[in-house]
Amino acid sequence: MSDPKPVVVFGTGTLAELARVYLTDDSGHEVAAFTVDAGHRPPGEGEAGARFLGLPVVDFADLAAAYPPARYAMFVAVGYRRVNAARAEIYHRCKAMGYELLTYVSSKAIHTGPLDIGDNCFVMEGALVQPRVRIGDDVILWSGSHVQHHSVVGDHCFIGPDAAIAGEVTVEPLCFVGANATIRNGVTIGAGAVIGAGAVVLADVPPGHVWAAGASRPVAVEGRRLRDFW
Questions:
Q1: Are 111 and 129 a contacting pair, CB within 8 Å?
Q2: Of 2, 31, 40, 226, which is least surrounded by CB within 10 A?
Q3: Distance between CA 39 and CA 41 in Å, rounded?
Q4: How many CB atoms lie within 10 A of CB 6?
Q5: Within a domain: 125
Q6: What is the pLDDT of residues 110-134, one digit of tens each?
Q7: pTM of the model
């Protein structure tokens, strides 16, 4: 088996820092560089140019020339800004340039047999995925989260630490599920919905709605900041 391609990580925030640690220490991948859009590069270090964690930071517009997709893979390490839409947009830009987007599954995650999982996913230690679960593209399962049997997590979702998704649940694309949230079996979470930290979800959530902690039903955002709910 050939060695995996070295990786360029999109981002220079805390998630990018974590990605570098996990990819290097737990997957055998070499992180070669970081990339961001022009105007978001960290300060340069003399003639070496912009650096992050000791590695080069390249403008995304120049990435293909410096780190061509035939030789390098990518990982988009961007959080849940705009309910994951920011990460989704970057994901599609990288795909359009021909980059392989790798998926990382911690060696300390819990699952039986191969995972049915897409690309650019990040499955952290202690995450539990039961059989007959489908995980889409560009999904983050934070440490301690549970996704139980016959559930589906759609593309570009973020499942927070210790969140519990019971069996036969459908989480549609671009959803956010906060820390310690619980979703009962058979529920559908509509696209772009937000489940607040500590919420207990007992019924379907329409697309774009919010189920906050302590609530008995979902509500429309109606101009409120989504950050108010987690």
A1: yes
A2: 2
A3: 6
A4: 14
A5: yes
A6: 999 999 999 999 999 999 999 999 9
A7: 0.93
